[in-house]
Amino acid sequence: MAELDDIRTMATRFFDAIEEGDIAAMKNSFAADAEIWHNTDELVGTPEQTAAVLTGMVARIKDREYAERRLTVFPGGFVQQHVLKGRRTHDDGAVRLPCAIICKVENGKITRLDEYFDSAHVAEFRKFANA
Length: 131
Prior knowledge:
This protein is α+β, with helices and mostly antiparallel strands. It contains 4 helices and 6 strands; from the N terminus they run H-H-E-E-H-E-E-E-E-H. Strand 4 and strand 5 form a beta hairpin.
């Protein structure tokens, strides 16, 4: 069960890092050749691309919280459902983005992350991407 405890600790640290705006720690959770897939565009990205996107999110969303976390670990990975909450920096408007993340983990690093968002919530979220 040590493997499951290690995966649980790594997954928690991964999301905590994003909440705290620590993009370097978040990126360090990925294997160098990790694949990050998004259901909203069906594209596969890299850890570097993900770090760039999250750097922008951290700059535009304050008081970030991964609320209602439901983390399930299993040999070789984890699933987390949560609601990203926060406030937009430009107008203090509320942000709410439900999500499910499925990750494959090898040697303590995420090798594959599949991210599932409801497209209606993403459209609302992205309306303010350039604000």
